[in-house]
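Re-run with default settings, no changes from the original entry. Doing this only to confirm the output is reproducible before filing.
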Amino acid sequence: MALRKKKLAILGSGNMGEALVKGLLRAGKLPPESLVCTDPRAERREELRQRYGVQVTADNRAAAGGADLVVLAVKPQVMDALLDEIASAIDAKKLVISIAAGVPIAAIARKLGAGVRIVRTMPNTPALVGAGATALARGPHATEQDLEQALSLFEAVGVAVVVEEHHLDAVTGLSGSGPAFVFMAIEALADGGVKVGLARPVAMALAAQAVMGSAKLVLETGEHPGRLKDQVTSPGGTSIAGVHALEQHGFRAALIAAVEAATRRSKELGELASR
């Protein structure tokens, strides 16, 4: 296994940090004693220690210094402070993996020093249930083996793909922000069910299952979603009437615009981080 006998530090134990811990342990890719998680809150550290049996600390520098792989799992707005804190503990022997949206590899390298091996990633929140989508971009000093290790890490919580770094803003707009758009679609479908007489719990369960099942059908059949849509829309039937209503209200155009807007914002955040 790519991660065998490696020591992993996860700096920042929010939802995504915990998702990685849970996925790695569930997949058997690392034992609990090979994982150390940091968090400034004592109650959160104790929660993670009891739940997963991992090591915990509030000392980011010490955690990074004792690890082979260091995951930067903090919010973009506190990344600078974290990098300043751990810079003296990072050398070319360690692999640094960032999950901070909009923070370029170059901005991380400026803080940690020349020659540091960096892989930048963009995961999404379905990683919390093992169904994430993560894109990874390799920095100039990261090796193929580094990329393999990073892929193994995120494959523990879903699907992982490799892209060029300049595509990560688009990834952020699509799969990073996409779950928010899908949650809105599920909510709206459920509201529609309620409007036509279904109880709220029934409508929500049916809407969520319809979205999950449809996504699974696309992935497992490899069919174009337009073709699958055509298979549902029989002549003069209910589905084509609904499709017509969606077209009248600009459904597809709205989703395209949402991805464009999220991508644009990711670029803006990246420019701020680069200053």
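DSSP finds twelve helices and eight strands in the chain. The two ends are 39 Å apart (CA to CA).
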